Amino acid sequence: MKLHRYILVFMDVFLVVLCFFLALFLRFEGDIPVEYANNYVTLVPVIIGISGVTFVVVDLYNRLWEYASIKELVAIVKAVSISIGIMIIAIYFLNLGKLPRSVYIIAWLLGIFFIGSSRLWWRMTREYLMSRKSLKRVCIVGTSDEAVRAAHLVKSDLVGFVDDDKRNVGTSIMGFPVLGTTSRIAQVINAYNIDEVIVARIMKSSGLRTLIHTCKDLKVVVKVIQQSNGGMIPKLRQVNLEDLLGRAPAALDMDSIAGYIANRTVLVTGAGGSIGSELCRQIARYNPQKLLALDCSENNLFELEIGLRTMFPALSLEAILLDVKDLNRLDDCLRIYRPQVVFHAAAYKHVPMMERFPSQAWDNNVIGTNNLLTCVQKIEVERFILISTDKAVDPANAMGASKRLGEMLVMQANSSNPGKYSAVRFGNVLGSRGSVIPIFQKQIENGGPITVTDPEMTRFFMTIPEAVQLVIQAGALAKGGEIFVLDMGDPVNILELAEDLVRLSGLTPGEDIEIQITGSRPGEKMDEELFTSEEQLDQTTHGRIFVSRNGHFNRFEVERLTQRFFGERAVSSISDFKAKGSK
């Protein structure tokens, strides 16, 4: 047997010997007669030998007592009963010195109790030591209701809170102190040996970035609290890139959105893409009469259809494999389904690729948009919303120029039709295919290096769900002819973004992952803008949606952009736009 089993045998035998003494003591109420005391002393070697051998033979020690349960208690009762039974027989036949019969009964009860209690003590001690070993010391950032909910999740590990408001320092929440201010998080971590920091409030990106850097330097884990879909049970998760944007969830006017989507046939082009697929998911929640999901990629369309039918089994869905460049088939399709609301998200958007193949940007983003506008005007669509981009502002590349031309076509269509035709312009979205973030993430997975074109370059970012929410909300605000501009927050430095992604992966930029500066590519701007110098923005009724006052068709601008980025072949075709739009 192993050493710890010898220790257990010794302990159990000692307990049995003690039980017999206590049984005598209880039987005679502390006044043990000399005769029985002498007999007890004589029987001690017998008790030791029989109990020790019996406990080993009945397999009392080939068990994991750390997980002691009812089965182990039954084994103890069996072992004690057999050992005392053998003692009674041996003492009777060998005439070794008798004890009162009640002493055996009391010793049997005490033996079961003491040996069973020793196993329970063994298990409880191990669990306590293990819990102490795995115990975390947690600090929560924030003192709001979210912080209280986070506290309930980690109450056994919680040390206290930190908050931006100095007046809260020294107070307590749920009996736990506010230890200091967020700006002194490093001192709090060191003073109270904090292992984990939970962020339970919206923080500005700069503040959260500083917090993450500080905690990483001190080897402290950072998590955030996240509501589940039902909003009732909060969960803790790792910090992700969306948190670094520091944006609170967008407030939506659900009634106004449902007012133009519910019980209507809604078409989404580019439905298999990042924006298009999210549009479909969010539109489906507003009970459209029918959702038309149109895309030219069979794989994207197939995956979208499977996902939508799983998420929304009652949704009337039509997945349409079609290219917006195919005017005749597009016209036939729209005459059949006659959508009342159209979200046009189909577009080529990869800047360097479109610089290499500007004719594709023209055919897809300009001709495709014009084709769609030609068709929807014939069926007198109620609303048309073009998904545009910040690269359409003073475009420096073919992709941006093609989207600006698309805006111009929408403005032209609005001027000659009863429906409401508008565009929504916003910057980069996190996770969009072909954007910089998935590229950086792939480079990190491959061990680097990360390639950044210029250390001073900045871009606007928002999450895909937020962008789509605001697009749908803008559709409710549309009166026709607007270019809506979404509030993207502050521009993000691309180099800092790359460094943040490295840190969120648990690595150190410059050490674990190299960052290389490659120089700007053709068509890239250092900084993007959301509106031109000629445009003036007005606030709408929604705090994150603005509208350009100068949204109108400008033939001079159309000709200039077409000549500059797409050449003579394209210039010769723009004369057809106005005629097509009026049909």
Which tags fit this structure?
single chain; 583 residues; alpha/beta; Rossmann fold; 3 domains; nine-stranded mixed β-sheet; seven-stranded mixed β-sheet; 20 helices; 16% strand
- Give the CATH topology of the largest domain: Rossmann fold
The major beta sheet can be summarized as:
9 strands, mixed
Strand content: 15-25%
CATH superfamily of the largest domain: NAD(P)-binding Rossmann-like Domain
The tally of strands reads 22
Distance between the termini: 96 Å
| Helix coverage percent | 40-55%
Gross morphology is elongated
Structurally, how many domains make up the residues?
A: 3
Uncertain segments of ≥5 residues (pLDDT<50)? 578-583
Number of helices: 20
Structural class: alpha/beta
State the CATH class of the largest domain.
Answer: Alpha Beta
Radius of gyration from CA coordinates: 38 Å
Could you tell me the mean pLDDT?
Answer: 84
- Biggest sheet: strands side by side, in what order? 10-9-8-11-12-13-18-22-21
Oligomer: single chain
